[in-house]
Amino acid sequence: MLDVFCISESPDDGLVANRVSLNAASNAVLRALMKEGLRRDAGGSDGTSASEDLLSDEELNDLVAAIRSTRNAAPFLNRSELVSRVMAALPLSGTSFTIKRQREAVIRALADMVETNNWNLMADVIAQTGSMRAGGSTAADFIPAAEHRRWHFFSIDRSTARVVDQTGEDCAE
Predict the structure, then answer these.
(1) pLDDT tens per residue, range 126-139
(2) Domain closes at, from 69, 99, 115
(3) Using CB atoms within 10 A as the burial measure, which of 57, 71, 119, 166 is most buried?
């Protein structure tokens, strides 16, 4: 049911790239994903300014704490557990999350940006050219003359083992 309310359609094969792993995301990443999230759908029409419709720092902290405590108890198996587990962990008293549709708005926005079924890997590749010392026969005898470093990022679907996305980035030091 959660997929019905998400912003974009998933491809027919169900494989997508550029999503954040809900089970591995740091607090800073979770905060960044929700930073501009709306807590009300009023859009200022109820006498409040548009900035008052955004999540406050306290509300962001409450959301991140709820996700972390839920994740620490057991990893998320799928993103629909955002609804069943995280909404139950949100504090209701003294926050704007007392209204059900305001809690759901944040969860729906987050659900379209996270996943639980991909492995996200990074390979740090360092290629060196050079020569061996005279009479050398071990790696300790190698004299590097030049070095090139490149980072490769892979997103692999756990159920099919297909590479969903891959990118590379030269790393200059």
Answers:
(1) 999 999 999 999 99
(2) 115
(3) 71
- What is the reported pTM? 0.56
Structural domain including 130 reads 118-170
Question: 79 and 47 share a domain?
Answer: yes
Contact 165, 118 (CB under 8 A): no
pLDDT tens for each residue of 64-91: 888 888 888 888 877 778 877 887 777 6
Measure CA of the first residue to CA of the last residue in the chain; give whole Å.
47
Are 33 and 11 found together in one domain?
A: yes
